[in-house]
Write a structure and sequence with these properties.
Blueprint: H1 2-23, E1 42-43, E2 50-52, E3 74-76, E4 108-109, H2 119-134, E5 139-145, H3 152-172, E6 180-186, H4 200-205, E7 207-213
Parallel strand pairs: 5-6
Antiparallel strand pairs: 1-2, 2-3, 4-7, 5-7
Length: about 220
């Protein structure tokens, strides 16, 4: 009697397992790649030629009945794809030299019949001195001008004294005389039409102008 009961239990268990096993199917490979696998197959720990693909968590797809959805699969003779070589580094860009422009100089004005540099004139010439110290190959031409009061000959000489005065100041402040050319145009090239000895126009014509040549 006991043997009959034991056999009945065994058959009952087989029936349950058989029905549970039959409930699982291997109908497709949808679980592959959808269960959170390890990034690459893992080599078989027992030295076989295959690789195991392991889900990170042992579970099938939600709601499916995959037979091996929580196991993995063997890849025979699998080789890890070679990594793409990094593209060659681009050569460093060549530095672009900043384009230099000549500084803009204001005219240096003088009092009537005078070649003495005034404080505001010195301030302007100081800008030129600093620039020429920064660029030692630059040269400059200083041109002295006058208004039309007086003779042409006198004004030509006065214009020269004015440009010489500027040159002397620059040399005293460290610029080589060979880099400075001082000339006179006298009254021949007024900046504005002369209107009389004490007019604002005549005051603007009593001046020194600068032509800067940048060195190579």
């Amino acid at each position: 009697m006991r043997k009959l009961i034991a056999l009945a239990v065994v058959f009952a268990m087989l029936g349950v397992c058989g029905s549970a096993q039959a409930a699982k199917v291997w109908d497709d490979m949808s679980w592959w790649g959808n269960t959170g696998a390890t990034p690459d197959p893992v080599a078989d720990s027992k030295g076989r030629s295959g690789y195991w693909w392991w889900p990170k968590e042992p579970a099938s797809n939600a709601g499916d009945t995959e037979l091996w959805g929580n196991r993995g699969i063997v890849y025979h003779l699998w080789e890890k794809p070679a990594e793409e070589p990094a593209p060659p580094a681009a050569p460093p860009a060549k530095p672009v030299a900043a384009k230099r422009t000549v500084i803009q100089m204001n005219n240096v004005l003088f009092d009537f019949d005078s070649a003495v540099l005034k404080p505001e004139g010195k301030k302007e010439v100081n800008r030129l001195v600093a620039e020429m110290k920064k660029y030692p190959k630059d040269t400059v031409t200083v041109v002295g001008h006058t208004c039309n009061v007086g003779t042409e000959a006198y004004n030509m000489a006065l214009g020269q004294r004015r440009s010489d005065s500027v040159k002397a100041y620059m040399v005293a402040n460290g610029i080589a005389a060979s880099r400075i050319t001082a000339i006179s145009k006298g009254e021949s090239e007024p900046a504005v039409p002369n209107m009389g000895k004490n007019s604002e126009n005549n005051k603007k014509n009593r001046r020194a102008e600068f032509t800067i040549v940048m060195g190579k």
